[in-house]
Batch of 4 targets.
Target 1
Amino acid sequence: MATHNAQTPERAERIADQAVAFLATVATATVPMVPSDDVDMGLHAFILHTKAYAQFCDQHAGRFLHHNPAPGGGGRTLEAVTTTAHAMKAAGFMVFDDLWTVNGESAAQCDSDCGRDYRAN
């Protein structure tokens, strides 16, 4: 994570923690889940490690959790990100509030469909 996004090791660890908590919550979420800009960086870094990512998905979701970027924006609002952070807290995860912001600088944003099981289609 630190290598992929020029983060300090401490910040990279916190972002990775939140990305994993996000994915674990997505696996059973009953509300649309949208990562913050920071957490989305962690998701992208994790997805690059395809074998570990696929194993995590299988173990925690029983299925592959797809990432659905919405090029050009859309889907990531402060309200959606706040709802996601609340869902993670309700699932028992610690949420680092400083990483759950929307700064609008992400070029490809994940829509509210992130994690949907595409095998159902």
Target 2
Amino acid sequence: MLGIVSSLQQNLLKKSGDIEGIGSSFAAQLEGGDIGSQNLFKRKVSSQMTINKIFKKDLREEACQDIALIFYLNAIPFNAANSEAYKKMFESVARHGPGFDPPSYHEIRVKYLKYHVEMTNLSLDDHKTYWKKYGCTIMTDEWTDGRRRTILNFLVNSPLGTIFLKSIDASKICKTIDKIFKMLDDVVEEVGEENVVHIVTDNAANYKAAGEMLMKKRTKLYWTPCAAHCIDLMLEDFEKKIPLHSETIAGGRRITSYIYGRTSLIALLHKFTKGSDLIRPGLTHEKPAMGFIYEEMDRAKEKIQDAFRGDESSYILLWEIIDQRWDKQLHWPLHAAGYYLNPILHYAPNFKVDWEVKRGFIDCMEKIVGDFEIIGKIDDQL
């Protein structure tokens, strides 16, 4: 067996012309007496390392071709190669060594599926422990599938992270306030009322009404609309109510339609963007923004004011649009409490507490804790 491997290695090197070069170099130095036994040993080790490197490179290329073929034949998304599980899989196979017998269809479908379901349930138990200790937020994500059904995903967020809870076909539910209320109430019951601090949904009128009904029944939790959706609506209001914004956005849409209506321009666009979409990527962080919304909204207004050099007549309409959405949809005690309890902001040198913020914090404590003596102790420790 060793002879076969050695012969294969030599054949690989002959293809690259390295064997003859190494051999002639050894012969010349031996005849001239310029090489000692120690140097000869080092040269042999070096040449062996070169042989092994080329041999492994060829083996890797062959393995990669086979792996890539699996992706192509089974329509596996290329993005799967970015998964940590994908890399871990090959590390496990490499530790096993030659002769690894891959799992069969039945093993993947039954044996290992059961195993990973059990592991997922154990992980879920860890999350439930955090829910009981720290509380959690139920979040909804509504989308429409290819059959025009309204699907509602429910997720639960806690300090340990966000997990998917379940999906519901809400096509016959999302138009009726009473049905939305029952759906949300059932999910709160499933997670545990004592664990839920907050529930976030779309900010449509029917969801708002259902959320208010839920807060009357479940008195220790808050319902709030999705902050991102509210900010989108603010931007839409800028377009609708400010002529300059409306004209600018309309012009941008005409340019976009003109480009994407002509294949030659699309090809030119892809040439100069190297196949990418014409967007500017933004830095995002996978973390909740609750503790920052209150402060960031104030900062946004200040930046708008600075952009107009303090000319109130120029920025006041923008402020009014922001305040209108903020007061109706985002101005909740929970956001004020999030600002007050955020350690990054709370212990900053320029941190200031006005009555509105403190009132929001106290309202939250009244709702969640209820005991004013305990609330006082909590406030004293901050």
Target 3
Amino acid sequence: MQDPNDIPEMYRQENYNKSRRNRIITSSCNIFCHVSFIIAIIVILAIDRSACKYPIRAWLIIYACLSIVGTICSLIIEIVIKQKHFESRIINRLYGFYYCIMICFFITWTILGSVWVYVDDNCEVEFNLGWKLIVAILAIQYVIFVLCSCAGCVGLVYVLALRAIRKENVVKNEEGDENIRDKTKNPHLE
């Protein structure tokens, strides 16, 4: 007798392909945003050589350097993960660990940049292009944080709703109604 919790190979491959496609889309958007920011930062730092060195110019330089490192690491990780013979739990955990570190850094750096932008009024006049770029980067990052938070909340509600529906269907099946099938069963919720 087949275990009802076993996932047929067809569904396993389909879920793997969806997961991989979503990871590639997310990484591509991430890389695109960082490359855009890097190009804008380099152009503005090259054009505007004002006397305002600290903190806004320093924030931009460090942000650009770490974005370059992060983008290169993302590309390397994506290339390695796309190779099927390297697909393993260790690689996936390293991938997740890397993104956790990068997210923690960018959250911290965004908060620090917010404090610096709103505390230092001298650079707004002297280094106007850089100041506007930081405000734009911060605004985009805050929008991304809000969207990710909303997506996390929606995902949590979705998972809880699926579990409640599944539990309800299991109770109905146990009561003797053999015609009801558990159509909401999702193997990833176990």
Target 4
Amino acid sequence: MAGEKRPAAPAEESLFVGPNEGSSSFSGINCASAAEKAAKRQKGPDAPDLAAPHKEFIRALIGKGTKREEFLTYKDEITYWSDHFKGLVASVEDSPDFVIQYPDTTPEAFGLFQRWMLSKSIKDHADKLPPNGHMVRLFVLGIDIGTPEVANAAIRGLFQAGWNGDNLPDQYSYIYHNTRRGSPLRKLLVDQIIRLVPQEDFERALTRSKTRVEIPPQLIIDIAIAQSKLLPNMRANRYVLKVGDYEVSEREVREQQTRTVRGTEAGNSSEGSGQRNPDDI
């Protein structure tokens, strides 16, 4: 962990904090090809045109229990950007209500997805990023629905925000319950903890949570492994974090899909039990 406070990451693609460019403690991802593919998809001949008449809206019930909210969303948009939602829409097209239900995320995360579909940005009208917790859940949603562009929008937002001061233990637990080993979100969390966060700030974050939350054992292991890889370079003045090292491709989204492998890595298992904690959204 870093020994001094550093500012949040700038909007640029890299944040200098170490010796060798691209020297992330985890293997990098060729984000250029992922970004190019996303741009082509946005401009493809089948991409919905917001200037064209949209004849159909879909009602979407998002979340569960008292936290469930109803959204109206363009059918053309949501079925174009997510095969998962395309399947859900197809399953209710003959029903009189024409309502889809998706309990496995929060209304805030789905709202960001909807904002992204319409503007290709998750920032609000004042150019402000959402809270980190919402972006974390947006990343998980992007993986679950098979839309790497959405997951990468969340990663870029988290990279720009820097995570400093907003990473409570309940977020650590959420990340490790809802992602698989090797997830770019885990990699970003670990790299920023060991390279950017002063040790006293990390210790304070572990003790200031309002509710008692168990720190995922795998997080401690990942921190130790990543820290050991930095030891040979301790005399170097700075390292670099590159946002491209944490972006995902379509192939990696398929590999990282977590819908059937959720659950217990924060406890006893390293890969999940297949059941999400109903309170873990």
